[in-house]
Every structure is written in C-alpha cells, then in structure tokens.
C-alpha cells in the first residue's frame, strides 16, 4: 500500500507539476505538442513492423534493460496485430496517439498549408488506428467531428451552444427511447464487436454495485466481490476504477480538478486568434479524455500523460486581454487595439469624420488661406 501511494503521487502530482512548471505560454504549449507528435512519428516505423509481423521490437529492446509487459495473448483483428508499442497495452498506445490528433491539426497546423496540416494529422491517425481499439478510434472520430463543426460554423457565434443543445437532445432520446442509461448505451455500442460491448456493460453494472457498497473509501487494491463468476479482474473504465479503489470522494476530487482547469479555459475571454485556436484544441482533447475514460482505464504512462495534459492547459487561464479587442471587423477578424491608436508624433483624425473631408485635415491651411492670407 505504501508503494502504491508513492507511485500514485509521482504519476499524479509529478506529471501535473511538470506541465505547470514548463508550459507557461503558447510557445511552450506549441513545443510540447511538437515533441508529442514527433514521439508518435518516431514510434511509427516500429508500430508498422509490429502491426504486420506481430513482433514487438520496442519491448524486446527495452526488455534487455527494464522489466516490460508483453501482452502477446491479445487476439488480433482482421488478420493484423494490435500494436502495443512501448506501452503496457494496445489500448494505451491508442490513447496516447489519439490524444494528439486534434492538437496536431489545430496547433502544429495553425496558419500552415492544408497539405502540411493533413499530412501530420493523417500519420498520427494511422498510428492511432493501428492500436485497433474501439475507444481511441471513437475519440479520434469525435475530435475530427468537433473540429469540422468548428471550421464549418466558425462565423456562427452560437455554434457551441447549438452543439450542446444537440448533445442534450441526443441524451434525452437515449434516456426516454432506450431501456439503457446514456452511459450504458455508449459503453455497449461504441465497440468493435457486440461481445466486448456487453462485457463492458456487465463491468459497469457490477462495478457500480461495488462503488455503492463502498462509497467512501472504496476497496483499495483488493478483489471486487460483486463481479460475476465468469468475469475477470480487469475494469475498462477509468472513472469507475477510481470509485472502486478510492471511493466517490476521489472521483469528485479528480473530476473537480479537471473541471477547475477545463471549464475556465473553455470560457476564457479576450484571447487572440492564435491562443484561441490552441485553447479550442486543448479543450477538445480534454473532453475526449473524459469520454474515452468511460471505456478505458488509464494506468501507468497513460495516466501520467493524462495528468500532464491537464496541467499543460493552465497557462490559458493566466492569459490577460492582449492587444486584440473583442470587437470584430466586417470579415470577422480580430482588430488590434494598436491599429486604432495614433502613432507617437502623428495627429489623429477626429472620430466621426470621413476621411478626405476638410474638417479632418488638421494642421493644413484652408483653401482661403492659401489664396491670399
């Protein structure tokens, strides 16, 4: 138990504080995303080899020095191997790669050519696909859908309110028109096969019973007794595992910390165009983490990455209203305040006067003065 407490603190506070210390500006955030995307690119050749051959070169190399977990008993899909990479499970590799898909498009691709933007995004999407896990793929599709929504309706001020209204209506449709709860509906349907979906639904029901029986402190790292006889010990739900192990207060605290960062970042006002694009990509990424967490348990490196990403967006909250005003021009672009201020030593035209009128030409003689006075 003491060892578990120590490593939990390292993975939680260590990863979060590391991001807080080193990611303080939009340039730091851009550099972090660039390093993450380059890491995926470096892993890509090894992933392709593992995908086609079933051999795990990275785990073989690392296993010469460090203890590794070879998950070779996992069945392949469509005649291909589910890529694990250097992670403890293929689904964790998919979570890592999938979490940077939207960031690669919106952050690295900001103001870049469409070819360069889509080339990077396509390669990272391929890496995510090679995990052949339904949850990371669903998260990747969700990111593309939200990015497309934002791009198509970027001139519509209420686009996010409209999106939340659609989500709420879909929630009501599932709640009223289905015999499942919305969470159960998502868990059972967003999978590669129906068998996996029903198994995850059984995990949700039995795990929820465990949380209900041990709401305050959970069961720790013990065996949960509420599971059915044919079920294993694995729980594919990050939020459920937190409640089962540590009780509902732990779920409330970690979700509260999440909301304390993501919600203020989502509603931050007065950001310039670049920071606003970065903010949108960050919020989309973190929302996908929550959604994917209902069908994936984040542990080890994936959990540390989640906490690191949570801390990497706090700099958005510290951004002050910069040289851009909240008003938009006729084409919807942000107008710098400096453009409306006179340069030192230059006389400004009075407000409300058309350019070219005689009243606006201060410091110049009138026509009558030029004629004879």
Describe the structure.
Helix 4 runs antiparallel to helix 6 (114-129) and helix 5 runs antiparallel to helix 6 (114-129). The protein has one domain (8-317). With 373 residues, it is an all-alpha fold. The relative contact order is 0.11. A hairpin with a 5-residue loop joins strand 1 and strand 2 (334-336). It has a two-stranded antiparallel ribbon. The chain is 59% helix and 2% strand.
Secondary-structure blueprint of this entry?
Layout: H1 2-22, H2 26-53, H3 57-63, H4 90-99, H5 101-108, H6 114-129, H7 134-152, H8 159-177, H9 182-189, H10 194-213, H11 238-246, H12 248-266, H13 273-292, H14 301-311, E1 324-328, E2 334-336, H15 367-372
Antiparallel strand pairs: 1-2
What does the main sheet amount to?
A: 2 strands, antiparallel
**Helical proportion, percent range:** 55-70%
Structural class: mainly alpha
Strand arrangement in the largest pleated sheet = 1-2
- Low-pLDDT runs: 323-373
Describe the global form. globular
* Backbone CA Rg: 26 Å
Counting H and I runs of at least 4 residues, what is the number of helices? 15
**Count of distinct strands:** 2
How many domains make up the 3D coordinates?
1
Q: For this entry, what is the oligomeric state of its chains?
A: single chain
Cα(first) to Cα(last) distance is 97 Å
**Overall pLDDT confidence:** 80
Keywords: Membrane, Transmembrane, Transmembrane helix
Subcellular location: Membrane
GO cellular component, one term: membrane
Main location: membrane
């Amino acid at each position: 138990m003491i060892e578990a407490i120590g490593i939990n603190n390292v993975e939680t506070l260590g990863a979060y504080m590391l991001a807080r210390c080193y990611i303080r500006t939009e340039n730091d955030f851009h550099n972090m995303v660039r390093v993450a995307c380059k890491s995926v690119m470096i892993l890509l050749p090894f992933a392709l080899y593992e995908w086609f051959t079933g051999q795990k070169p990275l785990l073989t190399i690392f296993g010469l020095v460090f203890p590794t977990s070879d998950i070779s008993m996992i069945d392949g899909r469509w005649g291909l191997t589910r890529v694990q990479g250097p992670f403890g499970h293929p689904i964790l590799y998919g979570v890592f790669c999938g979490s940077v898909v939207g960031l690669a498009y919106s952050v690295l691709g900001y103001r870049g050519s469409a070819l360069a933007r889509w080339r990077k995004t396509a390669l990272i999407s391929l890496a995510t696909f090679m995990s052949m896990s339904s949850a990371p793929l669903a998260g990747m599709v969700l990111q593309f859908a939200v990015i497309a929504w934002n791009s198509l309706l970027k001139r519509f001020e209420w686009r996010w309110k409209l999106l939340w209204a659609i989500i709420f209506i879909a929630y009501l449709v599932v709640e009223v028109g289905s015999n499942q709860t919305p969470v159960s509906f998502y868990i059972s349907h967003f999978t590669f096969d129906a068998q996996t979906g029903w198994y995850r639904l059984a995990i949700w029901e039995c795990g929820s019973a465990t949380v209900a029986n041990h709401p305050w402190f959970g069961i720790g790292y013990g065996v949960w007794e509420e599971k059915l006889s044919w079920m294993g010990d694995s729980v594919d739900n990050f939020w459920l595992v937190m409640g089962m192990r540590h009780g509902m207060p732990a779920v409330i605290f970690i979700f509260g910390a999440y909301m304390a960062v993501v919600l203020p970042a989502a509603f931050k006002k007065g950001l310039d165009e670049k920071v606003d694009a970065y903010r949108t990509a960050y919020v989309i990424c973190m929302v996908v983490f929550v959604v994917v967490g209902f069908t994936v348990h984040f542990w080890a490196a994936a959990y540390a990455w989640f906490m690191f990403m949570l801390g990497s967006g706090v700099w958005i909250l510290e951004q002050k209203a910069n040289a851009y005003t909240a008003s938009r021009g006729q084409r919807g672009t942000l107008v710098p305040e400096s453009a409306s201020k006179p340069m030192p030593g230059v006389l400004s035209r009075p407000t409300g006067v058309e350019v070219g009128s005689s009243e606006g030409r201060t410091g110049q003689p009138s026509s009558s003065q030029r004629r004879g006075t």
